[in-house]
Write a structure and sequence with these properties.
Blueprint lengths: L7 E5 L4 H11 L6 E5 L5 E5 L7 E5 L6 H16 L4 E6 L18 H12 L3 E5 L14 E4 L2 H11 L4 E5 L5 H11 L2 E11 L2 E8 L6 E9 L3 H12 L4 E9 L5 H7 L4 E5 L11 E4 L2 H12 L11
Parallel strand pairs: 1-4, 4-5, 5-6, 6-7, 8-9, 8-11, 11-12, 12-13, 13-14
Antiparallel strand pairs: 2-3, 9-10
EC number: 2.7.6.1
Pfam families: Pribosyl_synth (PF14572), Pribosyltran_N (PF13793)
Protein name: ribose-phosphate diphosphokinase
Length: about 325
Amino acid sequence: MPNVHTEAKIFTCTQSKVLSQKIADAFGIPMGNVITSTYSDGEFQPSYEESIRGTRVFIIGSTNPGAENLMEMLLMIDAAKRASARHITAVLPYFGWARQDRKDKPRVPIAAKLVAKMLEAAGATRIITMDLHADQIQGFFEKPVDHLFASTIFLPYLKSLKLDNLTIASPDMGGSKRAYAYSKALESDVVICYKQRAKANVISYMELIGDVKGKNVVLVDDMVDTAGTLTKAADLMMERGALSVRAICTHPILSGNAYERLENSKLEELIVTDSIPLKQESSKIRVLTCANLFAEVMQNVHYNKSISSKFVM
């Protein structure tokens, strides 16, 4: 009689190889074998080098720009569908293109919705991701979405620092909900930065709502891109009398002059996960792995166990 339990297999997209290997080790199964052929014009073709018929396939890859990362995920999902995998779970440690979650002015796309539809059209039957830029993106999918919170990684580290007069800060109004959740868990105060943008990645004005004098401040955000907001907020808080300023950001995009800004800022440290590999090392950046979090959730999904504790702040 055939084995009625579906076998699990883990595969990785190119840019997430290091994290995927950690996840596979924590899950307790070897990494699946995929090779990618590349044409001279840049077109590429992933190929599964083992049978995946009837299996539960986990495909791990963050979809941050460039577009090749998203395209590779789509091709991997499509190949798995055509190879008769029974379940195809797209594991997106970082869900890219998520800042375009609504029309904030006329005649612009809603890229996050488009990406969700593309993943489903390719054949994904489930999505596992972490700290979406906007919670409502879960509703862009018709398939199940497991939205994990990196707070389960960051909170133990913050508690280990044993900071006196701890205050949690949000670098903008949109992140106030996240900041309040952290402050509740840590029983601390909250301050919020109010900012206005001249255009994307350019801040024209910033003001602080709340008192940070004599406080050890921890800024909390879902991502850090150019680090303009974080470093400006840290400098402002130090001017207002803060003892120290740290930042927790789940996804270290760190583009443009971000590393230079961090080195020249008054931030004591930037704490991130390895959802996106760092482009370079920095003495101010501390990386906490999310591999165990994803491995545990993937196991629970595979064995039909509850995962609610991993996406409740």
